[in-house]
Amino acid sequence: MPKVATSLFWLPLLLALAAGSAEAAASEPMTPQITAQGTAEARATPDRAVVRFGVQFDAPEAQAAQGRVSEAMQRVIQALRRLGIPENRVGTERLDLSPVYEPTGSPGRPGPPRLTGYHAANVVRVDLDDLTRLGPVIDAAVGAGANEVEGIQFAVANEAPFRAQALRQASEQARTKAQAIAEALGVHLGTLLGASEANVEVTPPRPVFFERAAATPIEPGEMTVRASVTVRYGIQR
User: Fold this and answer.
1) What distance in Å separates the CA atoms of residue 126 and residue 91, rounded to the nearest whole number?
2) Distance of alpha carbon 23 from the chain centroid
3) How far apart are CA 134 and CA 51, in angstroms?
4) Rounded Cα–Cα distance for residues 116 and 4 (Å)
5) pTM for this structure?
């Protein structure tokens, strides 16, 4: 009982102190600030590529369809080996075997679908860090029996320097904006109170979707790294 009485005695005092602290904080004037955001982008030339090759065939029997795909893909892989592509840079990405049906019946009175055969497909991906080999690799794969090239995706092996460049430029732009705001208001830019990275976005070049009849150069284009930085400065009058 004495402990309960003591707690009840201190409770009103603690509430009064908390209320006084809140009132004092509310009465304190906010530090005048200028907030500005800067955005910038850096451009990088890709130095890596991922290309996907496929082999697909239809046949009346599942074993025949799968057999034709396997034979053709073996020739494709052997052609890549002859070009010196390491084994760990080539990997199976998709392997499909599915029945093929066609509709039956007549307009307005459809019948049950009829099995007409099987569709088999095998897709491999090849990772390249030498883009000068991209054209020869595609030519070799198509020449060996690949009848589908799903596309090419480009990338940069090390994005960090380009991210840092974009962040530096965005920070400089944010400070320039804050300085311009201060001059327009007739005040001086004070101490930096805070800075935050709002966003960093990497936009790779668009994938190349393939229609290739002969050896032609492939240009990777550029990838873009965009950054946004928000800064807060105090105001000196």
Assistant:
1) 7
2) 49
3) 8
4) 86
5) 0.65
